[in-house]
Design a protein that fits this description.
0% strand, globular, binds fe (ii) ion, Four Helix Bundle (Hemerythrin (Met), subunit A), mainly alpha
Length: 147
């Protein structure tokens, strides 16, 4: 049996320095971890599928949020980036329907999260830095450091 890595911890390299997006990414990561923890505890397939539904819905919300940010700052790679989001949502739906093992699914989520955050999302940070765009307004008024 292939064992996937245990829960994923937050790393500096995932940060894009837009408070709202960093917070949503932290929650995304927590959600992926909750799926892994439910697997480790031997939760039923039905419970695991429910968490997958939650991940899918959260991903959809988060992508809309990130896309709204991109539009607001006139991000030039909006089209390509949104296409990647659409692609993930489609893959999530397909994988959910023809699931070949929860371990594989978890591994897919972990790899996707790391890859997308450090390759695609980081480009938003570079754009914001290069053009000195003020992104302070893109935050939630909650205690982010408690997460
Ligand atoms: Fe993204």
């Amino acid at each position: 049996m292939i064992t996937s890595p245990s829960t994923l911890s937050w790393k500096e390299k995932y940060k894009i320095d837009v408070a709202r997006i960093d917070l949503e990414h932290k929650l995304f990561l927590r959600l992926i971890n909750s799926f892994k923890m439910a697997m480790n505890k031997g939760r039923s397939d039905d419970t695991l599928r429910r968490i997958i539904d939650e991940i899918e819905k959260y991903a959809s919300f988060h992508f809309a949020s990130e896309e709204n940010l991109m539009v607001a700052i006139n991000y030039p790679e909006y089209e390509e980036h949104s296409w990647r989001h659409k692609e993930l949502l489609e893959t999530l739906m397909q994988k959910k329907q023809s699931i070949s093992g929860f371990e594989n699914f978890h591994q897919f989520l972990v790899e996707w999260f790391i890859e997308h955050t450090t390759v695609e999302d980081i480009r938003i940070k570079h754009f914001v830095d290069d053009y000195n765009i003020d992104v302070k307004e893109f935050c939630y008024d909650i205690q982010e450091d408690t997460l």
